[in-house]
Amino acid sequence: MTQIKLSKCKIDQLVALCDEHGNQPGELINILHKAQELFGYLPREVQEVIARQLNIPVSKVYGVVTFYSFFSMTPKGEHPISVCMGTACYVRGAEKVLDEFKRLLNINVGETTPDGKFSLTSLRCVGACGLAPVVLIGEKVYGRVVPGDVEKILQEFQ
Amino acid sequence: MNYKMHILVCGGTGCRASASAQIITRLEECLRDKNLEDEVQVIATGCFGFCEKGPIVKIMPDNTFYVQVKPDDAEEIVNEHIIKGRKVERLLYKDPERKVAVSDSKHMGFYKKQLRIALRNCGFIDPENIEEYIARDGYSALAKCLTEMKPEEVIAEIKLSGLRGRGGAGFPTGMKWEFASKYQADQKYVVCNADEGDPGAFMDRSIMEGDPHSIIEAMAICGYSIGATKGLVYIRAEYPLAIHRLQVAIKQAKEFGLLGENIFGTGFHFDIEIRYGAGAFVCGEETALIHSMEGQRGEPTMKPPFPAEAGYLNRPTNVNNVETLANIPVIITRGANWFNKIGTERSKGTKVFALAGKINNVGLIEVPMGTTLREVIYEIGGGIKNGKKFKAVQTGGPSGGCLTEKHLDVPIDFDNLLASGSMMGSGGMIVMDEDDCMVSVAKFYLDFTVEESCGKCTPCRVGNKRLYEILDKITQGKGTMEDLDTLQNLSQVIKDTALCGLGQTSPNPVLSTLNNFYDEYVAHIRDHKCPAGKCKALLSFHIDPELCIGCGLCARNCPVDAIVGERKSPHFIDTSKCIKCGTCIEKCKFKAISTR
Fold first, then answer.
1. C-alpha dihedral (B193, B50, B347, B398), degrees to nearest 10
2. pLDDT tens-digit profile of B292-341?
3. Is B56 left (phi over 0), alpha (psi -120 to 50) or beta?
4. B446 Cβ contact list (under 8 Å, min separation 6)
5. B240 lies within 8 A of chain A by CB
């Protein structure tokens, strides 16, 4: 078995979480949601503990984690940036805004800056289409963003 | 408490993004300062629909509709409107044609042609207060069903109403209920499909945020009709506010005895649980959704067996979409014969559309079936943004197609949209103007489908990827005329052979743009030109020395310092450095920069 690098206390929390859901394989997605809240992401070790508790193969847990876009196996940056690429934002120029973030941060979608400060993702519709194109940084919503605004927005977090 | 006035503030996701929560706090502070907190109540409601002009604040009983309100406007609203009874002119909606202020939403172009059935309570009630729902006839439909109607009578009423599923396929709801009612099992399930995955459609979220009890009531009615005692709402984890409001509503309904054991003393039990999606478009397909609720990968399976026979945990399951359910209580209280008078011959009632893109009035609208695209785009939507020319409207999301000028007078209903080469889908409606490249739009949707394909069947997993690659090649100017035939043939094969609705409809954006904008494809291939000026690989930026006055604004704003030139003399673009971002064109006040 792989060496588990998580702290004992975190593992206990995770085991308790699985217990709360009756260690039922049918509850896997609910458990993963809670586990991601707890750890911020779902590294391999977390998936192994869940698989053991639910008595299912790790491959099944991994299969579910990688199927759904909400689950992530890499830690997010301190300020996670999400650029809405829903259709409404796309036709109002979201792609250019995304390109500008990529250029200024020098990372691609799905990556985190080396200093761990920013991570960049694109998401599909937050439903604030009246404000298109929309960018989310953490909980903060930026509406009607043009490429020229990007540098200023990033400076707020420097 | 008897309040004399109410201030309704939109608490939907869109308006909250523009600080509507702070507006509420400021209004409450101002009212407290003036000792008016016992006379005027501030309520956070669901979405008013007019997202373009949000945040919206409405004063009742005089029905004044304020638009684009900021937290700093709170004081003036309280001092002027609440205390002195004078409307704050500058916050009223200005009619763009008549240039006059309109204070009542009934007289606004955006609302005039709308008929709100599914959205009837959104923007009127506090979604977190069950008593407000009850005051608007809430739960009376459930009471009527349980105390006056047999389950088969309820199903007959829904069948008579002609209601068809609002999630995309348009299957008759009453028939679906009837199938599920015919199977016997120790447990049956009612599932509400709230996994709204179509990018650009947000009606389900708005209904759950603005009127969650209507969904609970409808699910209980469905449970009674098909003999189910358990309900499950499958909702996207990306909708935290909708989840919260639904949780509050379920709790309140239980406290009021409207969910749980022995509802209305009739011996009928019904309970609702929430299940969370995790971001997979394919989970909108009912068999995939059921697998996801069972904790598995959301992959679809062949039908039959239909969920009505073997669904969640292999038990008979009825799956309905949020908007479909929102129509149920009204059909029961006002009668199927009222409902089936609205709409067209084969599509009854109304449809909610999320109107977005290059249109003046972005928002959520509800119109009777049979309304034309022209009425929606020009009368309700207020026409195209910045006076540009209408090019296309995309309906049905990634499964739908693009309709053009020649379709503008088609009455919108399930069958007409299908006949025109698109589909109703969940009701996303994205308007595009002359600056949108239709090849890029098709590529955008295919990019989505490729990412969201579950990978189970080959036509969808591999075929869509190939379609995407060909489209990408065309946008790079490297396409051939043979590619167009390949696109056509491959699309047809995918449609015919894919396992589920996602794959069977995914080539629609390609086919409809090929049909309606063939010349634009040809321009990319033969002339290496993108007529809309979108495809970067086919563009180069130039400054017209006749028009450039050398102000230097473009050079200062260029993110890569690709523009050079002396002050007061024409500038030049270094094409080796230029990243074709278009910032210079936006900034130039003299229209000196263009693409070729």
1. -60
2. 999 999 999 999 999 999 999 999 999 999 999 999 999 999 999 999 99
3. beta
4. B464, B467, B468, B471, B506, B509, B510
5. no
Q: So what's the pLDDT on residue A81?
A: 95
Q: Which amino acid is at B501?
A: G
- Give B297's contacts in chain A (Cβ within 8 Å): 63-64, 67
What is the tens place of the pLDDT at every residue in A75-106? Answer: 889 999 999 998 889 989 999 999 999 999 99
Q: Are B213 and B133 in contact (CB under 8 A)?
A: yes
Whole-angstrom Cα distance, residue B480 to residue B524?
A: 9
Q: Is A85 on the interface with B (CB under 8 A)?
A: yes
Among partner residues A71, A127, A151, which is closest to B202 by beta-carbon distance? A127
ipTM of the complex: 0.90
User: Is A147 in Cβ contact with B583 (below 8 Å)?
Assistant: yes
Please state, in angstroms and rounded to a whole number, the distance separating the CA atoms of residues B395 and B569: 48
DSSP letter (8 states) at residue B567 = T
pTM > 0.90: yes or no: yes
Alpha-carbon gap: B18 to the closest alpha carbon of chain A (Å):
8
How many CB pairs lie under 8 A apart between chains A and B? 139
Tell me which chain B residues have a C-beta less than 8 angstroms from the C-beta of A87.
199-200, 356-357, 394, 397, 428, 430, 444-445
Q: Which residue has the tokens 């990018």?
A: B199
The b-or-e profile of B209-234 (16+ CB within 10 A means b, else e) is: bbbbbbbbbbbbbbbbbbbbbbbbbb
Tell me the CA distances in angstroms from B88 to A108, B44, B98, B101, one per residue in order: 47, 20, 19, 11
Min CA distance, B76 vs chain A (Å)?
25
In the sheet where B401-403 sits, what is the strand order? Answer: B363-368, B350-357, B428-433, B390-395, B401-403
Record: contact B279-A127, CB cut-off 8 A: no
Query: Touching check for A71 and chain B: CB below 8 Å?
Result: yes
CA nearest to B483, candidates B497, B495, B503, B467: B467
Which of B326, B317, B312, B231 lies closest to B269, judged by CA? B231
CB contact set of B474 (below 8 Å; sequence gap of 6+):
B439, B483, B521, B524, B525
Joined tokens for residue B149: 């109607």
Which of B275, B278, B428 faces A87 most closely, judged by CB atoms?
B428
B217: closest CA among B296, B120, B309? Answer: B120
- Cα gap B506→B461, rounded to integer Å: 11
Which class for B5: exposed (0-12), middle (13-18), buried (19 or more C-beta within 10 A)?
middle
Predicted confidence (pLDDT) per residue in B167-182, tens digit = 888 999 999 999 999 9
If phi over 0 gives left and psi between -120 and 50 gives alpha, with beta otherwise, what is residue B459? Answer: alpha
Which residues in chain A touch residue B586, judged by CB atoms under 8 angstroms apart?
Answer: 146, 148
Alpha carbon distances (Å) from A113 to A73, A94, A106, A121, B462 = 16, 21, 8, 12, 32
* Nearest chain A Cα distance for residue B167, angstroms: 17
Task: Write down all domains in chain B, each with its CATH number in brackets.
Answer: 5-112 (3.40.30.10), 130-339 (3.40.50.11540), 350-433 (3.10.20.600), 438-526 (1.20.1440.230), 540-595 (3.30.70.20)
Please check whether residue B29 is in contact with residue B79, taking contact to mean a CB–CB distance below 8 angstroms. no
